[in-house]
Amino acid sequence: MGEPDKPTIEVEVDGHVATVTLNRPDRLNAFNERMTEEVGDLWRRVREDDEIRAVVLRAAGDRAFCTGMDVREGPWWTDVGVWSRQDPGARLGPKQQGVWKPVIAAVHGMAAGGAMYFLNEADIIICSDDAVFFDPHADGGIVSALEPVGMLHRGVPLGDVLRWALTGTRERIGPQTALRLGLVTEVVTREELWPRAAELAAEIAGRRPEGVQGTVRAIWEALGQTPAVTRATGLLYTQVGNGDARPGLSRDKGSPRVR
User: Fold this and answer.
1) Can you spell out the DSSP letters for 7-65?
2) Contact between residue 203 and residue 237 where contact means Cβ atoms under 8 Å apart
3) 58, 164, 252, 255: which is deepest, by most CB within 10 A?
4) Rounded-to-integer distance, Cα 164 and Cα 172, Å
5) What element of type H or E holds 204?
């Protein structure tokens, strides 16, 4: 089970970018209770630290980005009544934790089942040419709901989501198919994966953070809103987030400068 006192994630902050590495390679980076707690604490730190403007999410080891929940340790959320139980992976998703700073996920190897807790709420996903995406729930006769629903919200076509969820480990989405489906936005070699993710994060982190974070929040919140609400909210976020940043506007009155 690895070293008991060893953190399940590693975090390094440099140049406004937090690089987060899932660090349970001996368990194929499967998440357990401790990892969910440490990731939850991480997202809180990212949310509250203005020096962090973007995040790279990656994984240690050669074989996997994440293979979902660590089944060897079993469910830890069943010690309470059925109506008091919460989604065990809720802490893993940055958007559920109120993080509107861009998250760039760099996927290599296997991304299975519960890995989608991380990926469904990432802003940009890139992968290496050895990445494979699959859902093992069906093999064990287990309902797969939260992960595929999250994929739908990302815009992955319904038929492909159903096929991914129902075929279990028999079929796997390779990198080029993931690119075609819109699950990832770029495929690179394994050697290029981490540097490319760092490059994207650094470029975004170098931009005005209020503008970036307002954009991220407006786009994600639009997924659950009607068009009318989206337009109203988007206008509000534009007014709040842009403030005096718009060229030609005075800082104090918001009126056009006289040149």
Assistant:
1) -SEEEEEETTEEEEEE--GGGTT-B-HHHHHHHHHHHHHHHH-TT--EEEEEE-SSSEE
2) no
3) 164
4) 7
5) helix 190-205
Band of pLDDT at residue 2, cut at 50, 70 and 90? very low
pLDDT at 247 over 80: no
**Tokens linked to 185:** 């936005």
Read off the tokens for 11: 């975090």
How many whole angstroms separate alpha carbon 168 and alpha carbon 136? 5
Q: Cα–Cα distance between 191 and 197 in angstroms, integer?
A: 11
Pair of tokens at residue 219: 């786009």
**Buried (b) or exposed (e) across 188-206, using 16+ Cβ within 10 A?**
beeebbbebbbebbbebbe
Is a pLDDT exceeding 60 seen at residue 112? yes
150 vs 148: CA distance, rounded Å: 5
Given the structure tokens 């060893």, which residue do they identify? 6
- Beta-ladder partners of 127: 107, 187
Cα–Cα distance for residue pair 41/199, rounded to 1 Å: 25
pLDDT for residue 191 = 98
Query: What band does 224 get if pLDDT is binned at 50, 70 and 90?
Result: confident
The full DSSP string for 99-155 is --S-EEEEE-BEEEGGGHHHHTT-SEEEEETT-EEE-GGGGGT----HHHHHHHHTT
Pairing mode of beta strands 124-128, 132-134: unpaired
Whole-model pTM: value is 0.89
At 215 the pLDDT is 95
Which tokens sit at 59? 């994984």
